[in-house]
Specification:
The chain is built from five helices and seven strands; from the N terminus they run βαααβββαβαββ. It is of the alpha+beta class. It has a seven-stranded mixed β-sheet. The structure holds coenzyme A.
Amino acid sequence: MSVAVSFRAAAVEDARAIAEVHVEGWRWGYRDILPATVLDTLDVDERTARWTALLTDPRPGDRRVVAVDAGGPIVGFVATGAADDDVAPPPEGAGELFAIYLRDGWQGRGLGRGLLAAARRSLAEAGFAVAVLWVFDANERARRVYEAGGWRPDGATGVHRFEGGERAVLRYELQV
Ligand SMILES: CC(C)(COP(=O)(O)OP(=O)(O)OC[C@H]1O[C@@H](n2cnc3c(N)ncnc32)[C@H](O)[C@@H]1OP(=O)(O)O)[C@@H](O)C(=O)NCCC(=O)NCCS
């Protein structure tokens, strides 16, 4: 991992930077998975409003960790909390990894693994013994990183729907 990058808890003031990373992460990470028409409609202002609300009024167990480059900018983030899964019921009292994203150009340096380790610490610290996450079936890079971090497919499957199509998603589980 780049020694210049450190991790810290997110603050409300980070909402816009997190939204930018979120949109950028979708655009580069899902380039070969989702149509450009979907990626083009992502809106940083709209995501900023959502992240501002989430960070202002966290639910019990919510944790957000940002990866910060030495110069100041946020280059990645991970969000965890109590599982919110309406597709297939997760184990009782499970946590969930909701989102993990890096800016374009920051992948492949171990930062994904670093954020994943931070997520595990967050989940443990919040008292979750087991956690789940959803990932696109086709997202091979992320799935390799999750598997290296001890996450395993738990057999649950679903679909992510968007206007004009859908993509298969898989659920992974971690014994925290
Ligand atoms: C998913 C994501 C956060 C993972 O982060 P990442 O930076 O790609 O992950 P890492 O760098 O930790 O690992 C990726 C590869 O780099 C390698 N690597 C790790 N440390 C390294 C280092 N110091 N130097 C060079 N390579 C390194 C890893 O071995 C791994 O190789 P592999 O893919 O052949 O197994 C990132 O790819 C991302 O933001 N993707 C787009 C959004 C996304 O898909 N999010 C997941 C939603 S479910």
